[in-house]
Amino acid sequence: MTITDSSTAVPMTTAITLTPTGGPVLAEVSSVAAAAGTSKTVLYRRWDTKVEMVMSAMVDVAREVLSVPDTGSLSTDLHTILVRMRARLTEIGSETIRSLLADLPVGSTDALLRLITSHVDDVMAPTLERARERGELGPGALAPRAAALPFDLARHEFFITGTMSDDSIDEIISICVIPLWTTLTNTAGT
């Protein structure tokens, strides 16, 4: 799987904006290339398949959507982030996402996981720092897996059920994430 960085933002954003209502998987590479002012050959140098290109586009667009809120409380910040994530996933559609995942080439899981989680630190680092400054979390560091937990649980909820209710978001935050983060950041190094 050949996934690249933000230098490919124009073709990737084009892949998403060109998609018909049936979802990103229907975007034709030639249409994306034409709209991006490049050729199919250039796109295929960056991505081995159309599925990889569309997945990259989805992550880039998601990165734009997941700006860092500052509401004054960790739980409200997380709620805002997950509501934005839900809106983007709903726009794409759970069936489209499932079909893209099913079409991924064998052996591309590690690259896809890196791509999907590449935005976590950008969003979570300032969110966690502000929570520490407000005394909502302790001084201890969170492992990357723990910091990604709200995204992982929300993604799982959406992919499995096809939706993510406000109640589900609240449960993810209040039952799973904040208690774990509070414990981990207050017991680190002890």
Automatic annotation (TrEMBL):
Presence of keyword Nucleotide-binding: no
Pfam families in the record: TetR_C_11
Domain Tetracyclin repressor-like C-terminal: 68-173
Keyword vocabulary terms for this entry: Transcription, Transcription regulation
InterPro entries linked to this entry: Homeodomain-like_sf, Tet_transcr_reg_TetR-rel_C_sf, TetR_C
Protein's name in the database: TetR family transcriptional regulator
Organism: Gordonia otitidis (strain DSM 44809 / CCUG 52243 / JCM 12355 / NBRC 100426 / IFM 10032)
